[in-house]
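A.,

Following up on our hallway conversation. Structure tokens first:
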């Protein structure tokens, strides 16, 4: 099986490549070569997919069984991918996102693939536009398209989000025994998937005919509250998390840019049903729990000097002080 991964050296890509190699696939990755190189048995094709003419020419005389696109965010890029790979691959797997659904929850709480797509962010809207381009290419028989929508995915090579930030001050504060902020009452629902578990779905969807023309949520089954999320992440540091609950809008207004994650995504429930993916791709079994995965991720962040030191974060400390002065009692997660 010849597979091309556009991207290939990023977070989820690393999990995908690992499982493709375990399947014995012949793997090529296409990227700008700005990160650590792929494993030695993976071919690297260097280039920028934003340079459409060059990108499309690069693969003119190549044929792949499956192409997995991890770096496509708008319709123009998607159309370029269709020109590059239409008629030149059996299957095209597009990495979308659960942000395409927006922020509403159905009566049964878990969002499945039948839920309407009403994204609120530019990111989600761009991914919906890409999905539409790939569906049209599928209908026109240019290739068999498969759409995969991860939710929050983490692992070594990246940071672990908290409820407030992509690169949180909270983990260092917890390690120092300091209280951390959490929105609402910490009872919002969330899911978190390790990149190696998420990568399995892409790798085993490849050339699986049941996945042709289908879309899949790609999440670990476990749904937890933010209280539990902080409890498990803190346990990975050998600590207990002390949570100071404040309204999301109060936190965001202190620095809307910094707390954009909370504003746009994590103040809402993020709970998705991935039963369809587990039905069609039986190899997609998530095995890495948050405490273990957070432990690996924290160790990697420290080793890469990517651990965010919270000393000197006067804004965060001032916010905690203000909440405590207003009489809010920290609650142990
Ligand atoms: N992590 C999550 O929580 C999450 C959730 C939902 C969806 N997603 C989706 O996951 C995808 C990201 O996948 P990932 O985690 O493997 O990637 P990533 O960690 O974002 O890394 C990006 C990869 O793409 C390459 N790349 C970036 N810009 C490029 C360009 N212009 N031309 C060619 N290659 C380029 C990078 O290598 P170079 O820098 O060397 O080019 C790298 O290999 C995105 O589509 C995102 O929407 C992620």
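Then the amino acids I'd put at each of the 333 positions:
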């Amino acid at each position: 099986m010849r597979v091309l991964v556009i991207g290939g050296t990023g977070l989820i890509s690393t999990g995908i490549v690992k499982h493709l190699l375990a399947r014995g696939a012949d793997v090529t990755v296409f990227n700008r070569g700005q990160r650590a190189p792929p494993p030695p048995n993976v071919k690297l094709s260097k280039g920028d997919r934003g340079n459409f003419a060059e990108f499309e020419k690069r693969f003119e005389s190549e044929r792949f069984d499956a192409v997995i696109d991890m770096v496509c965010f708008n319709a123009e890029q998607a159309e370029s991918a269709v020109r590059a790979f239409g008629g030149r691959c059996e299957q095209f797997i597009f990495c979308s996102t659960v942000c395409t659904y927006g922020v509403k929850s159905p009566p049964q709480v878990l969002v499945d693939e039948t839920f309407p797509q009403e994204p609120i962010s530019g990111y989600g809207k761009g991914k919906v536009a890409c999905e539409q381009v790939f569906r049209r290419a599928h209908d026109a028989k240019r290739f068999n398209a498969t759409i995969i929508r991860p939710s929050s995915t983490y692992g070594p090579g990246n940071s672990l989000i908290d409820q407030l930030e992509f690169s949180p001050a909270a983990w260092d504060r917890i390690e120092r025994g300091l209280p951390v902020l959490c929105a609402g009452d910490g009872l919002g629902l969330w899911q978190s998937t390790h990149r190696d578990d998420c990568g399995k779905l892409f790798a085993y969807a490849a050339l699986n005919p049941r996945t042709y023309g289908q879309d899949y949520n790609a999440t670990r089954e476990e749904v937890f509250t933010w209280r539990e999320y902080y409890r498990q992440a803190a346990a990975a540091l050998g600590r207990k998390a002390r949570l100071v609950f404040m309204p999301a809008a109060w936190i965001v207004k202190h620095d809307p840019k910094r707390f954009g994650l909370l504003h746009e995504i994590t103040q809402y429930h993020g709970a998705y049903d991935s039963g369809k993916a587990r039905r069609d791709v039986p190899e997609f079994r998530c095995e890495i729990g948050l405490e273990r995965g957070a432990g690996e991720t924290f160790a990697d962040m420290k080793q890469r000097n990517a651990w965010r030191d919270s000393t000197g974060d006067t804004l965060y400390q001032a916010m905690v002080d203000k909440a405590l002065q207003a009489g809010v009692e920290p609650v142990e997660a």
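DSSP finds twelve helices and 14 strands in the chain. Curious whether your intuition agrees with the design.

B.
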